[in-house]
Amino acid sequence: PNFLILESIRDWSGIHADLLVTPMQFEDGHVIPPTAPGLGVELNEEFARANRYRGDGLHLTMGPNPVTPRTDQF
Question: Are the CB atoms for 74 and 28 separated by under 8 Å?
Answer without folding.
Answer: yes
